[in-house]
Amino acid sequence: MTERYINPGEANFAAFKDLPRDRPIHMLNLVQYRDEAAYPEGHENAGKGWSGARAYKEYGRTSGPIFARVGGKIVWRGAFEAVLTGPEAMHWHDGFIAAYPSADAFFEMIKDAEYQKAVVNRTAALADSRLVRFDPGEKGAGF
Predict the structure, then answer these.
(1) Where are the alpha helices (DSSP H) in 1-143?
(2) The dihedral of CA 118, 123, 128, 134: what is its sign?
(3) CATH number of the CATH domain containing 120
(4) pLDDT at residue 1 above 60?
(5) pLDDT one-digit tens code per residue, 95-142
(6) What value does the mean pLDDT of the chain take?
(7) Collapsing DSSP states into helix, strand and coil, what is residue 12?
(8) Are 70 and 104 contacting, i.e. CB atoms less than 8 angstroms apart?
(9) Angle CA 91–130–112, to nearest 5
(10) Structural domain tally of the chain?
(11) Would the CA dihedral through 46, 47, 53, 58 be positive or negative?
(12) Which residues form the domain of 119?
């Protein structure tokens, strides 16, 4: 079975925290939804029969105001079509790049009490994901 990733691992998060925090960052998000969202027992959305895609939409609705407040914006979004280089079985439902004015802004978002409530929707929604930090480079015609 292929290893799945929903939340940051301890070593990866420690490395992320050690990077500079005072400059813009881009976060590549690749997401694969569960067929049915997996909420913890007792959560207000448990038992609603939501799909993973529906639960992720709820994550966007509930976390979006916090994302905007810290200065985040989506700079690219796309729907998966095919893998050219990589495992043939790899499949993502959606991908997007979230831009933050700084890593400090990202940390402000994830520490926010309302965000921490909202992220339960993300965890319930996803079967697999990747979240990769990039230092934004220059745009242009060449590689």
Answers:
(1) 10-18, 52-69, 103-111, 113-125
(2) positive
(3) 3.30.70.100
(4) no
(5) 999 999 999 999 999 999 999 999 999 999 999 999 999 999 988 888
(6) 95
(7) helix
(8) no
(9) 135
(10) 1
(11) negative
(12) 23-134
